[in-house]
Design a protein that fits this description.
- The radius of gyration is 32 Å and the shape is elongated.
- It is built from 25 helices and 22 strands.
- By secondary structure, it is an alpha+beta fold.
- A seven-stranded mixed beta sheet has the order 10-22-21-20-11-18-19, sandwiched between helices.
Length: 626
């Protein structure tokens, strides 16, 4: 029995699909030859289909009944196969076996294995840590760090454990935890999380959470638990299998007892086989996946479109999803009569041209797009966690946060303009020229031009948009107001996004989550459907999702939702047709009008109709104005 179980597991592996295709081709050829009465070896070639396709079905049915008393569609198929062989209807048995295995192959091709991406999260876990003992630095495995240890982190290194900075200043890229597109300045007393990256300055920290308690390990556990809790959709034929088996056996036995003709009973079993019913869902899904691929979606989970059709809420990450994820200069304000706004912009861009900070690079890129020339710079200096200083055309320029200017004894007057931009979620770069406050630049993330219309189209499809972001409330509210999103959850850590999705699900609402960062991975796994931005998104987010948007064109999202709903209509139409055909064929079989071979051919015709009807999904397109 163990060997049989092992063999079946090997047969059902996705990696064995090529072998299954070869077997089906051989079986198909044998069925055609049998139908044409071609018997080159004085042997009915339908036996080839029975052996290659039928035996695995029978074995799986027996194992399911014996080990779990699990009645699926393959139980009825097995009964029909055995009965057909017993009365000599070899072609009918071979044809049924072939069609059923074809349906199984289509399901294999559409239902891909879920890859959690957990192994890539593990790669983010720091392997070593620089622990200080009596001013001596020892490099030890990160898992050996103890609470209270003093740790040094150099520029470019990943923070090994959670802790508090006790010496130094820096900027930390914490996108892995919050999804924020910009590094966050850190100084003494600030907390840092494991897995985040130290960008510029060297600092020393005291470990507060280590090992399994660290942030990155908590992230891994969240992804694992979210994946385990996601329900899988059961095939409709298997869901109704118990009733189908009972009705089929009852009808066959009663017909046999009344008519006294075993062939009528076998015909009922043959026509009752849910061939078209088995093909109804996977063929429609395959066609819909082909359609989605043309519009930039890579569907990694076969049943993801089924789940998406039932989604009532779509939760969006902000940075990189609804926005481009790259800051742009939105305003330049001069507060000095000696410097114009154009001159101020040039000075700051020139001073930042050697900066490695994302904000500095953004300022330079925006300035260059206006086709302006940068000035010559001397004595450039980068101050980690604060900003830059440089001599621009013999003028000393400081550009950074308020602490940078205050350290140079520059007085920053109170003014409302900067506060207004902060309330809108902008980042402010304060500027001084020759130790005198000169003004500021405001930078913010920009909304994708198609996001507003995309949200409007989703609303027409009865989808409720929700914004889940790690950004501050001001930035989140600004973006939400532009896109007319009423529900906003800001300052979200990975576990917070997970909790919000769980709350929606507990209230009976199916949720689709769209994100791009590592911090979105647990939420993408927990949601009924996870969609990752494949272009700008991290590999871990893509691996955690059911669907990847390859080119990041969010304008196609309404089409995907509409496609999933139309796909479900096609599936229901396919099932209705197949069940209707079944009952008509059963009636004819009871009356003796159909024999097993004709019954099998009728089923074949029903399967062909289902495949053709599903194929129309390949070119289906809902007209959406974006």
């Amino acid at each position: 029995m163990k060997q049989i179980m092992k063999k079946l597991e090997e047969l059902m592996e996705i990696g064995g699909t090529k072998k299954d295709i070869v077997l089906l081709v051989i079986s198909g050829i044998s069925i055609i030859c049998s139908l044409l009465r071609v018997k080159p070896f004085s042997f009915d070639l339908a036996w080839v289909a029975i052996i290659l396709c039928g035996l695995p079905i029978i074995l799986e049915a027996i194992i399911g009944l014996v080990t779990e008393f699990d009645i699926k569609a393959d139980v009825l198929v097995s009964l029909a196969l055995i009965a057909s062989v017993c009365i000599g209807e070899i072609f009918a048995a071979g044809e049924v076996a072939f069609i059923m295995q074809l349906g199984g192959l289509l399901e294999e091709l559409t239902v891909a294995k879920a890859r959690a991406g957990i192994e890539k999260l593990v790669y983010l876990t720091p392997q070593t840590a620089r622990v200080l003992h009596m001013d001596k630095e020892d490099i030890i495995p990160a898992e050996q760090v103890m609470v209270g240890d003093r740790i040094r982190v150099l520029p470019g290194e990943t923070v090994p454990v959670d802790g508090i900075i006790i010496k130094g200043q820096t900027s930390i890229n914490q996108a892995v935890m919050t999804g924020e597109s910009l590094p966050v300045d850190k100084t003494i007393g600030d907390e840092v999380s494991s897995g985040t990256v130290n960008q510029f300055g060297t600092f020393e920290m005291e470990a507060t959470k280590v090992g399994e308690d660290s942030s990155i390990q908590r992230m891994i556990r969240l992804v694992q638990s979210a994946d385990a809790g996601k329900a899988k959709i059961v095939g409709i034929a298997d869901r109704w299998a118990t009733w189908i088996v009972v009705i089929a056996l009852s009808a066959a036995v009663i017909t046999w007892l009344i008519s006294g003709q075993i062939i009528r009973a076998v015909t009922i079993l043959v026509v009752f086989c849910p061939c078209a019913l088995v093909l109804a869902t996977p063929t429609a899904i395959m066609a819909a996946i082909g359609n989605a691929t043309k519009h930039g979606f890579l569907v990694r989970q076969g049943d993801a479109l089924e789940r998406l059709a039932n989604a009532k809420i779509i939760a969006f990450d902000k940075t990189g999803t609804l926005t481009y994820g790259t800051p742009k200069v939105t305003a330049v304000h001069s507060m000095s009569d000696l410097v114009t706004e154009k001159e101020l912009y040039q000075m700051v861009a020139s001073a930042e041209q050697y900066s490695e900070h994302p904000l500095g690079k953004a300022i330079v890129n925006c300035f260059k797009k206006e086709k302006c020339d940068l000035a010559r710079v001397e004595n450039f200096k980068m101050i980690p966690g604060r900003g830059v200083s440089a001599d621009v055309e013999r003028k000393e320029v400081l550009a950074g946060n308020q602490e940078l200017l205050k350290a140079d004894n520059v007085t920053i007057p109170e003014f409302k303009e900067a506060e207004d931009y902060v309330e809108k979620g902008c980042t402010i770069i304060y500027v001084s020229v020759d130790s005198t406050f000169a003004g500021f630049l405001a930078l913010s993330d920009t909304v994708r031009k198609e996001s507003e219309n995309m949200i409007a189209e989703l609303s027409k499809l009865d989808i409720r948009p929700v914004l889940l972001t790690g950004d501050h409330e001001n930035a989140a509210d600004t973006i939400a107001s532009q896109l007319h999103i009423k529900e906003v959850k800001a300052n979200c850590m990975p576990e917070n996004k997970l909790e919000y999705i769980e709350d929606y699900q507990k209230n009976g609402m199916q949720v689709c989550m769209i994100g791009d960062g590592v911090n979105d991975a647990p939420a993408l796994k927990k949601a009924d459907v996870g969609i990752a931005m494949g272009g700008v998104g991290s590999d871990i987010a893509v691996d955690a999702a059911d669907i990847a948007l390859v080119d990041d064109e969010v304008k196609e999202l309404p089409h995907l939702v509409a496609l999933s709903k139309h796909m479900m209509i096609i599936i229901k139409l396919n099932m209705t047709f197949s069940m209707t055909l079944n009952f008509i064929a059963i009636t004819l079989a009871i009356l003796g009008i159909l024999n097993p071979v004709i019954g099998a051919l009728v089923h074949n015709a029903g399967s062909v109709f289902v495949i053709i009807n599903s194929a129309f999904l390949l070119k289906w397109r809902k007209k959406i104005i974006i």
